[in-house]
Amino acid sequence: MSSNAKLTAIPTHIVTGFLGVGKTTAILNLLQFKPDNERWAILVNEFGDVGIDGALLKSQQMGGDSVYIREVPGGCMCCAAGVPMQVALNQLLKHAKPDRLIIEPTGLGHPKQVLKALQAEHYQHVLAIEKVVTLVDARKLNQEKYTQHPVFNDQLAIADCIVGTKSELYEEGDAHRLIAYVQQKKMTTEPVMFIERGQLALADIIGATKHSAQASPTVPAHQPVFRSIALQQLPNISVINTQLGAETNDGYTSIGWQFPSTFVFNRQRVLQWLQSLMTEQRIQRLKAVLTTTEGCFAYNVVENEMTETKVGSSAESRLEIIAEVIDEHWLPELQACGEQTQQQ
């Protein structure tokens, strides 16, 4: 789209799903379908105040200079009357003037409110809302903390297209359980799709949404409240943005850190520490982009599963944890996984 062209009917995709379902991986796969002559924009919403997904997307450099990324950290972007989302979206549209827009709400956000904001009058001629895509890991359907969670079910209920992710890890009956759950709840008339390793195809999600959120009752907005906490820092370690997000969504809390470029992690120590977190079941979700002695790696931990992916360089290391209870030992343990180096 040329810099002077009027913004109109931009194909807009909402890719939603609960914590750790693989939204960012799916979006990275979607970027592979971007024509060379198009400009795409991505609006990423983070539950915590330390942006991980945006840093990961930027580190992968998918699409080069023709992909624009904007982050909205600190809780659901549609809360507080939708102001954070509107400001970020308006800035992104003005700067990128995209041919296609992808929106990734936080895994604990309110999808109906996101859709409602996008269908507001001032966006009606600017955005053309495509199918709302909800990603779900079918293996989680045997856990009541998912099936009884209102956000989890709202994400499925608003979907035009439901996609079972990580199907390469399913056991017999997992896929059928998701199909039966969707049919029982009458969530969508479209067949459930299943993908491996986030390989979502653009052709599978093309088509206008059937949902209108304008008449939906307003979902009570959770106001993010932040309070600082005193965490012991080891000598000669410079850690910035140490803060705790007080309870914002149904008992979940986030805490995150940004480490300067001079702090380098020992990869093996990091892996051992992450393994200990999983063994002790101390977290719900962990995301990180870390500079290590063996390169820059992205880490994803969901309950008892971990993935490690080598990515392009990042200006600083970032890590965020979502849990029901924050452990004051996490920062010292994390700091013990690395060392301060001399600034080059």
Structure notes:
This protein has 2 domains: 10-205, 3-Layer(aba) Sandwich (Rossmann fold), CATH 3.40.50; 226-340, Hypothetical Protein Yjia, Chain: A,domain 2 (2-Layer Sandwich). It is an alpha/beta fold and 344 residues long. 42% of the residues are buried. Strand 13 (295-302) and strand 14 form a beta hairpin. Helix content is 24%, strand content 28%.
Number of helix segments? 9
Q: What's the CATH first level of the largest domain?
A: Alpha Beta
Q: Nearest-angstrom radius of gyration?
A: 20 Å
CATH topology label of the largest domain? Rossmann fold
The ordered string of helix (H) and strand (E) elements is EHEHEHEHEHHEHEEEEEHEEEEHE
Largest β-sheet summary: 7 strands, parallel
Strand content: 25-35%
**Tally of separate domains:** 2
Distance between the termini: 40 Å
Q: Which percent bin holds the helix content? A: 10-25%
- Regions with little confidence, pLDDT below 50 for 5+ residues: 217-248
How would you name the CATH homologous superfamily of the largest domain? Answer: P-loop containing nucleotide triphosphate hydrolases
Q: Structural class of the helices, strands and pairings? A: alpha/beta
What average pLDDT do the residues reach? 82
Care to count the β-strands?
Answer: 16
What is the approximate shape?
A: globular
In CATH, the architecture of the largest domain is 3-Layer(aba) Sandwich
Give, in spatial order, the strands making up the sheet with the most strands.
Answer: 3-2-4-1-5-6-7
